[in-house]
Backbone:
């Protein structure tokens, strides 16, 4: 029993030393300043493949369409609002790009319209974003709504993102927007 | 890039009606605050469990912690980031490159349970880990699995761990997170396959204690190694064991080994020869498994997105509908040379790391064989510290009482000191229960004689 005790104490000391050195090595790699990381879409790389809508672990994706008003042209004929080649510019569902009716628009002054996204309705499909980038200023873009995001250890959208646009970023730079360009 | 070219296709409107741009504020949740709450709770709960296991010897306290853990870490924090998954973050940080900085909180999540395991045994598993706690709370029966089967199955966590390290170090994917069967239950939604798997595991854990912890959890494998040399070990009783076998029956994870004195029917030479053979086999297994896995490294590297994309691009008969990744590759204007360079470096790291992962598997297998063939000389029922999850179930089953008082058993029963007994039994006369259990002991000893 003496021998076994001795071996065990040696094992304890070796394991303790190992853990301490592992902690030291990792501590030098860890960053306290940046703190937690969050998932973010780089709107410059996003290709609106539509996977954000379906791959998120949440029932309604945490990815939402954001609108950079500073970039928007406030057009009447909006590529993100109306589908391509619609005959009449009215709000009938078959004319609208958004499948959930999350985009509303308000008349500002001739000929400008202000567009607003209802985040509760938006499902992150990115159809409007595609429309806006092919016919528009690209003011609509997809971004992760951090208050809804569960911050999975590995984002299940990032795993399948076709362009690798979803990356971990420090909390301080959680939102990459287009307004402040 | 593509989008920046499109900006200002339509000029910025000059409003005349005094229109003001709306002020949009995107709030960032208090993620940092909550993750520090996680760490504080993790330490507090592990300390509490350590106290409950080693001092108070109370299962009820551990169950209380389990409920708090399932509610807080499970349902409120939705399971991320957990210590089990943090292995991959640590490996990713160790592998370096790509600018991944390990958050301090994740580092603590990884290290603290290991430190506590070194000091007090697997107190993290006892009730602090929401996955273990969930299985513990639904566990009703203890169907015992034979030693041979548990030994074989307990090799799975090491395979899982090796692949998790391989895939995390090559920045392919986090398989522990991807195949986490319980995160879907905590989030009440998610991947259907994993949800079904989680529910099946839950149903199984009603009858068999903690199937995930024992036969799948890669972090449990690490904790098991560390707690084998723990400073303080879980003790069934502080008094003399009377070999009544009640604790053995009660243990949900088959961690209590029965005495084996006089049971060994094998001659010493044969036993020694077998241990020597396994010790010789150990390096062979290690090298063999390393080579075996290395030979498969090209297949394994398909888990990396660049390698997969490259094979899709280079495939001789491309599918009619191109995968979205291939279209994205062309749309983004990535050059083939860049992709090729990436593929070469990824494959190279796969060749190197799959050898290490294979070596780890082979080494563990060899060690397990050696350990299984070592001669044991237990005189009483003993806890195997590496598999014991410190759930405290055996305390209340031990008729020799949990606490280290010198009062004889019957007297303690009359004084009503048996607060450790399950509540249902407390309601009836405690003294009667003691009589019953002693009778059971006599019966079981009687049976043994006949056997």
Residues:
């Amino acid at each position: 029993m003496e021998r076994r005790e001795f071996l065990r104490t040696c094992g304890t000391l070796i394991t303790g030393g190992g853990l301490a050195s592992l902690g030291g090595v990792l501590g030098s790699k860890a960053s306290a300043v940046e703190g937690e990381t969050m998932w973010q879409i780089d709107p410059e790389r996003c290709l609106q493949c539509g996977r954000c809508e379906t791959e998120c672990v949440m029932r309604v994706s945490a990815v939402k369409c954001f609108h950079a008003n500073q970039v928007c042209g406030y057009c009447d004929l909006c590529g993100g609002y109306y589908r391509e080649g619609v005959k009449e510019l009215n709000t009938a569902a078959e004319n609208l790009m958004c499948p959930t009716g999350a985009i509303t628009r308000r008349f500002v002054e001739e000929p400008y319209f202000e567009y607003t996204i209802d985040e509760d309705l938006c499902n992150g499909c990115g159809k409007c974003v595609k429309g806006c980038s092919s016919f528009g200023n690209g003011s609509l873009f997809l971004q992760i709504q951090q208050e809804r995001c569960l911050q999975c250890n590995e984002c299940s959208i990032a795993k399948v993102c076709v362009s690798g646009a979803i990356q971990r970023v420090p909390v301080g730079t959680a939102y990459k927007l287009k307004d402040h360009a | 890039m593509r989008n920046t070219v499109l900006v200002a296709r339509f000029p910025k409107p000059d409003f005349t009606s005094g229109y003001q741009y709306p002020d949009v504020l995107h709030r960032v949740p208090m993620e940092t605050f909550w993750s520090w709450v996680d760490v504080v709770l993790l330490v507090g709960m592990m300390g509490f469990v350590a106290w409950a296991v080693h001092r108070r010897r109370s299962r009820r306290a551990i169950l209380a912690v389990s409920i708090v853990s399932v509610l807080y870490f499970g349902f409120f924090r939705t399971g991320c980031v957990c210590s089990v998954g943090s292995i991959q973050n640590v490996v990713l940080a160790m592998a370096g490159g790509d600018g991944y900085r390990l958050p301090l909180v994740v580092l603590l999540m990884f290290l603290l349970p290991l430190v506590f395991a070194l000091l007090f045994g697997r107190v993290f598993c006892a009730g602090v880990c929401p996955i273990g706690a969930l299985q513990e709370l639904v566990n009703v029966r203890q169907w015992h699995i034979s030693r041979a089967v548990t030994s074989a199955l307990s090799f799975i966590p090491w395979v899982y761990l090796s692949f998790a390290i391989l895939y995390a170090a090559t920045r392919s994917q986090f398989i522990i997170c991807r195949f986490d069967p319980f995160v879907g239950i905590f989030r009440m939604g998610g991947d259907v396959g994993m949800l079904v798997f989680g529910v099946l595991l839950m149903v199984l854990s009603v009858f068999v204690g903690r199937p995930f912890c024992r036969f799948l959890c890669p972090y449990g494998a690490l904790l098991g190694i560390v707690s084998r040399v723990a400073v303080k070990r879980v003790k069934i009783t502080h008094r003399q064991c009377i070999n009544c076998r009640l604790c053995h029956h009660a243990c949900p994870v088959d961690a209590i080994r029965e005495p084996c004195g006089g049971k060994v029917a094998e001659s010493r030479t044969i036993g020694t020869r077998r241990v020597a053979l396994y010790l010789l086999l150990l390096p062979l297994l290690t090298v063999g498994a390393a080579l075996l896995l290395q030979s498969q490294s090209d297949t394994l590297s398909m888990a990396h997105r660049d390698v997969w994309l490259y094979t899709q691009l280079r495939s001789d008969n491309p599918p009619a509908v191109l995968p979205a990744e291939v279209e994205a590759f062309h749309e983004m204007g990535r050059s083939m040379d860049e992709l090729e360079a990436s593929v070469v470096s990824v494959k190279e790291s796969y060749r190197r790391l799959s050898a290490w992962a294979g070596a780890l598997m082979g080494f563990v297998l060899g060690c397990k064989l050696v350990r299984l063939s070592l001669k044991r000389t237990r005189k009483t029922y003993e806890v195997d510290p590496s598999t014991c999850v410190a759930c405290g179930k055996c305390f209340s089953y031990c008729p020799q009482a949990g606490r280290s008082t010198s009062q004889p058993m019957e007297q303690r029963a009359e004084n009503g000191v048996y607060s450790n007994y399950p509540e249902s039994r407390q309601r009836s006369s405690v003294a009667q229960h003691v009589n019953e259990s002693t009778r059971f002991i006599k019966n079981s000893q009687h049976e043994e004689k006949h056997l």
